[in-house]
Structure formats: C-alpha cells, structure tokens
Design brief:
The protein is α/β, with parallel strands linked by helices. Among the domains are: about 100 residues, Nucleic acid-binding proteins (OB fold (Dihydrolipoamide Acetyltransferase, E2P), Beta Barrel); about 160 residues, 3-Layer(aba) Sandwich (Rossmann fold); about 130 residues, P-loop containing nucleotide triphosphate hydrolases (Rossmann fold). The structure holds adenosine-5'-diphosphate and magnesium ion.
C-alpha cells in the first residue's frame, strides 16, 4: 500500500520496500516515520570510484573493487583451517575468486546469481584473479555497476537488516520525501552562510554525488546542530542580563589605589586586563558571570582579592570558596597577610570547627561584621545567611557545565556577582558550549620571576640517579620537593598504604637522613594543616602526597617534583601537579616515572614533557582523548551531539557561535516569523536544560 499524499510523518511500514516485518526491525533502531529514515545518516561510505573491470585489475597491492554475480562456492579443509572459496562471474569476461580462512559464516548470505562487490588486493593466479579475505558487499538488483552511485552509504545496522535493504528503501523514498522537508533557516541566511538547503543536503548525505558535495552536506548538519545550541546559550546569556539584578559595585580611583597598595607586587598585564573586565562587570546592575581562566601559577588569586576588596569597599560581603581545605587555608593566609592592619574582617569556614566557634562566625556573617568569608565549597553551600552578599568567588572550579549558582542566602533582593576561576585549561570550543553562558577572561603568561621547569620522562633505571640528584639539592641547597603517588580507587586504604610504602623505601634508602612527610585526603583537617605548616616552614623537606596538593598549593621553595605511576594521571592533572614547582627563586625539576604504558598514555606523557603551556596541553589532551570523554556533553545534562564533534568541528563552532549571537542580538526573543522554526527547534532541544522557559 502506498499513501496517496506523501507525508514526513507517515509510518515507515507504508513506504515502498518496507512492509510490516521490516518496519518492526527499523523500529529497533529508532526509525518509525519517514522523517526518521531521512535523518538516519550513514556512518561511512563505500567508495565506488575505485571500481574496476576485470581487465583493469592490477597486482599493485592497492585496494580494488570488482562487481560480479555469485557463480559457485565451496569449502575445503586445509592446514590453516577451513577454506571458503567463492567465484564470481564478472560480466562473462572472467572469474574472480574470493578466499576466506576460518570464516564459514560469510557463506550465510551467498546465493547463486546474487550481485556482489568484492574489495581487496587482487593477485593473478592463472587462470583466475584471487582476493584474500576481501570485503564483500551485496548489491540490490538495481545496484547495477552502471547505475550504482559513486559513494554507497554504509549505515549502522541491526539484526535482520542489510545495507542494501536500507539503501533500496532510501533510494525509493528520497526523491518523494526530501522535497517535503521544512527548511529551518531563512533563505537569505542559507545563502549568506553558504549552507546547503535541507532538501539538497539530505539526499547528498545519503548518496553523495562527489566528495565535495558530501562535505557541504555534512557541514550543514554540523553547523545546524551547533548553531541551535548556541542560540539557546545566547538567549540564556541575554535573559541573565535582563532578568537578574545585582548591586553595581563600581570602582573609583581612591578605592583602586587603596586596594593596590595592599599588593606586594605590580600586577602583570594579564592581571590588569582581567581586573578591568571584572571591574566593568561588577559596575553593572546585572550579576557578573565570569570565568577566569589562567594557567597554573599565572596569579589568579590577587585578581580575586581585588574583586573581593572592591565588594567590601562598596559595603558588601564577599565569599571565597575553594575545593579543598588545604587550598582554602592557603587563601586565608594570603588574605590575612595582605590585609594585615586593615579594617576588613576575614572569617574562615571549615569542617571540623567547634560548634561555639562556628556559631560565632555565622553570626558575624549574618550581622555583616565579617566582610570576607573563606572556606571550602561543601561547607559554604550550607545554610549560611549573609547580611549583604555582593560577590562569590569560586576557585579551581573545573567540573561543571552551565553555571549552577550556589544556594546562598544573600541577604538582599539582589543576586551576587560571580567570579569562577580555573587553571584547568578548557579548550575554547568547550568553554563555548558547556560553559557557553559564562563570559570568559583569559590570563596568558606568568608573573615575572617564574622559573623554568624541566621535565623528564624517566626509565626505571634512572631512579637512583634521580634520587641522588634530589638528595643533593635538598641537603646542599636547601631545596624542597614533592613526591606524588596516585590514589587508587576502590581499595579503602590503598592510597595511604602506597604512600607509606614509598615513605619506607625512600627514608631507609636513597633519601636517608632527609626529613620526609606524608599528606593524603583521609587525614583529618588538623593533621593536614600540621603537615602543610611543617612543609612551609621547612621542617619537612620532601612531602609524599596524593593529589591533595594538586590544586593551588603555593610553596615557592619546593622545586623538585617526582610523579610515580604517571600513566594514571590525565594531562591536565599532571600539568596542575607540575604547577606546584618553579614558583620561587630556583628552576624546577619534574621527573615522571611510569609502570604500564599504553599507547595513549605514552602520547600523553610525551606531550607533557614537550609542552609547558597549559592551553596547548589542553588542546592536545582533547585531541588524544576526544571530545566525548572528558567534556562529554551528556555528563553536563545536555543532549549528546548527533553529528558535531568539538575536536574536529572547532572552526564551524566558532562560526556558529558568532552567527547565533548576532541573530539573538538582532531578534532577542527569536520572535520574527522567519526565525520561528529555529526557535521551536532550539526550545525542543535545549529549552529545559538551559532553563529557557519564557523566551520571547
Ligand atoms: P594561580 O593562578 O595558580 O592561582 P597564584 O595566584 O597562586 O596562581 O599565584 C602564584 C604565585 O605568583 C604566588 O606566589 C603569587 O604571590 C605570585 N604572583 C602573583 N601575581 C604576581 C605578580 N604580578 N608579580 C609577582 N608575583 C606574583
Ligand atoms: Mg590558584
């Protein structure tokens, strides 16, 4: 039965060549309606342009393709196992044989007279041409060598469904249904942005006439996918600007001078420009929503301090949150030092504080007598009432997508300004999608005096030499250093145990006589604090640690870093660790040892040795691991991309983002009739995740 009026919503079972049985199979791969078929894209293409006639076959070790009809086949036992031989008749001009060892199942679909295509490296063995283990492709009767398309689509399949079934169905339906497709982009937009119209792109993606057209067809779908997300993000940014209200916290020259006088150094250019962007945001009546990205050691803390003091100067409170207590305590110390003898009251909020102490602090926050609160995220997110909160700074944030604002009782009718800092260099293409609603400041370069760090990827036999070097630097030059041992999940105390093992080995062996210390995540806060204190004062010379020291720790005299089982760390983590050294007056030395190295970890470690710029490393990491892994959209609650790939399609993304931003600027609610379809698509896909309830 065929429908009289073709409709994209008609069920596939009514399409030519489908029927009820095949419709059931198609349902399993999500194809219910005609439109689903059109959007069921090939995963690859069979290049038919390399097709030969039998007299064109060459023994030149290249892959060649030949078409013929199945004549006969048989199996025989050989020393190498069962041998399957297939002979195909090539237009009565001769026979080509395909040979397979131990693959009898190939025979399953053989039938005399059936048209097939063999792809392999032909060898002439008088009087036949032979291909060993060729790839076999079945052609529908209509897929005659003279009619067949230059690139045959290869679809993801399911049990009971063959390539030529799908090809045949699509060949039949495309001319009828593709013209019915609704174009979401306005006509002029298509022309301006060199996008293939949907009615052309769909047939081209299934049966590309040539490679260039295929690229244009793909580009259109990738662009569309990225563009629609960017529309959502642009609208979210705009809504944020129009719906949320913050108190403007402006600067003037007096405030500026008062703040700067607190800093023990002149700010770098990068710090100045980040501060300028932040100050500009904070002077607006809408909350700042800014991500400050700066490589490890680039000096983000003082930028945060500037912003906090600006809030305080305007009579508001600020909070400074860090992911670990070690880091939060370091910030507390920095602030206390910089603000010594000032009127500003800084209070700490950590786990494990005495109830009475905590009560006091909470009260100071509620009455406003404390102006700056420093602590760990976990503690601060809870139930704290501020008198007048103006700014939230979140340090070393690397694991979130679209900004989740902390649930803080701000004490006013306004939202606080947000500054989020990260040293995990996030590739630009990712900041633009997952972090797409944040404004981004980037700090390039380091403060003056930053030392060179030399990195070695060491063979195990270099151990003795390395530890000798470490011992000499420590005893003769008073240097300090870290030894980092990976944390092993799923075995309760393993991290502590492996640390103690390393401790034993070193203290009785190559580092005998050197004062060693241990720090790991399962120690109590007080214990950790004591160890860090001893390390800072030099009491401990070499600190054996898990990655608790990974983020933010700043001890300028520590110059030696040893990383054990380095293959277990990701690139950004390694880079973070290396950022702990080379912060003082001496050059840093980092040596990584590894155990079981895979190809991937090899690549990673080589990149680590070669590159010192965190942003370059991040791009590399991204290349090695692919977009799906580290920054998978799904992890962030976004629907996954169907065709786009943030590594491969960076350029298209930048373009789509700019174009989407322009469109939203010109038509904020996408209210123009020509934008209605885009708007609907965007809301359908991202309305809920991006919380865009009331567009327009
Ligand atoms: P990160 O960006 O990794 O958080 P920090 O803020 O911890 O970096 O700064 C790293 C070190 O650089 C600190 O010891 C800090 O005092 C120092 N520093 C920051 N800015 C400057 C500057 N402009 N001049 C000199 N030293 C600076
Ligand atoms: Mg920091």
């Amino acid at each position: 039965m065929t429908l009289e009026v073709p409709d994209l919503r008609s069920l596939v079972q009514y399409l030519k060549g489908v029927g009820t049985q095949r419709a059931e199979i198609l349902k399993r791969i999500g194809i219910n309606r005609a439109a689903d078929l059109l959007f069921y894209f090939p995963r690859d293409y069979q290049d038919m342009t390399e097709r030969r006639e039998i007299d064109q076959l060459r023994e030149d070790r290249t892959l060649q393709t030949i078409i013929g009809t199945i004549e006969e086949w048989n199996t025989s036992s050989t020393r190498r196992g069962q041998l399957l031989t297939l002979a195909i008749n090539c237009n009565d001009k001769g026979y080509v044989k395909g040979l397979w060892f131990k693959m009898p199942f190939i025979m399953r679909d053989f039938a005399k007279g059936r048209r097939v295509m063999l792809t392999g490296k032909p060898r002439y063995d008088h009087p036949f041409w032979i291909m060993m283990h060729p790839q076999i492709t079945y052609l529908a009767e209509t897929e005659d060598e003279n009619e067949v398309e230059p690139y045959l689509p290869i679809y993801p399949l399911t049990e009971g469904l063959k390539q030529f079934h799908l090809r045949k169905i699509l060949r039949n339906m495309l001319p009828v249904y593709a013209p019915l497709l609704d174009e979401v982009f306005p006509e002029q937009f298509l022309a301006e942005h060199k996008l293939l119209p949907i009615c052309e792109a769909i047939p081209a993606i299934h049966f590309p006439p040539d490679k260039t057209t295929l690229l244009w067809a793909k580009r259109r779908f990738i662009y569309q996918e990225l563009f629609v997300l960017q529309l959502g993000l642009a609208i979210r940014r705009l809504q944020h600007r129009t719906h949320l209200r913050a108190s403007p916290l402006p600067v003037d020259s007096k405030i500026d001078a008062r703040i700067r006088q607190r800093f023990p150094f002149t700010l770098t250019k990068a710090q100045e420009s980040a501060i300028k962007e932040i100050v500009n945001d904070m002077s607006q009546p809408v909350p700042m929503n800014r991500l400050l990205q700066g490589d490890v050691g680039s000096g983000k803390t003082v930028v945060a301090v500037y912003a906090m003091l600006l809030a305080v100067a305007n009579g508001y409170q600020a909070v400074f949150m860090a992911p670990t207590e070690v880091l939060a305590r370091q910030h507390l110390r920095t602030l206390n030092r910089m603000l010594e003898n000032s009127q500003v009251k800084i209070v700490p909020l950590f786990g494990g504080q005495k109830t009475s102490e905590r009560m006091h602090i909470l009260q100071d926050i509620a009455t406003g007598s404390a102006q700056i609160v420093v602590g760990t995220q976990a503690i601060i997110q809870n139930e704290i009432s501020f008198q007048k909160l103006g700014l939230v700074v979140i340090d070393e944030q690397h694991k979130f997508g679209v900004l989740q604002r902390a649930a803080l009782k701000t004490g006013g009718k306004f939202d606080p300004h947000y500054l989020v800092m990260t040293a995990t260099p996030i590739p630009r293409s990712v900041t633009m999608t997952l972090f797409g609603d944040l404004e981004v400041s980037i700090m390039n370069g380091m403060p003056p005096g930053r030392q060179k760090v030399t990195t070695y990827l060491a063979e195990p036999e270099r151990r003795t030499a390395w530890w000798d070097f470490v011992a000499r630097k420590v005893t003769e030059h008073g240097w300090q250093g870290y030894v980092v041992v990976p944390l092993v999940e799923e075995s309760e105390n393993f991290d502590a145990r492996s640390l103690h093992e390393v401790y034993e080995q070193l203290s009785t062996g190559l580092l005998k006589g050197i004062r060693l210390g241990i720090i790991h995540g399962r120690m109590s806060a007080a214990e950790k604090e004591k160890v860090m204190f001893d390390f800072r004062t030099g009491e401990i010379q070499i600190l054996i640690a898990t990655t608790v020291i990974e983020v933010g720790v700043d001890i300028p005299n520590a110059n030696l870093l040893t990383i054990e089982s380095a293959e277990r760390f990701g690139l950004s983590q390694l880079h973070q660790l290396r950022g702990r050294i080379g912060r003082g007056n001496n050059p840093g030395y980092c040596t990584v040892f590894c155990n079981a190295v895979t190809e991937e970890s090899q690549k990673r470690l080589q990149a680590f040795v070669k590159l010192s710029d965190g942003f370059k490393l991040a791009e590399k990491d991204f290349e090695i691991r692919g977009a799906g892994d580290l920054f998978g959209t799904q992890q962030h609650g976004m629907p996954p991309f169907r065709v786009a790939d943030l590594v491969r399609d960076k350029e298209i993304l930048y373009e789509a983002r700019k174009d989407a931003t322009d469109m939203v600027l010109a038509d904020p609610g996408l209210a123009k009739p020509e934008h209605a379809k885009l708007r609907r698509q965007m809301l359908g896909r991202y309305g809920a995740v991006l919380n865009l309830g009331d567009v327009g």
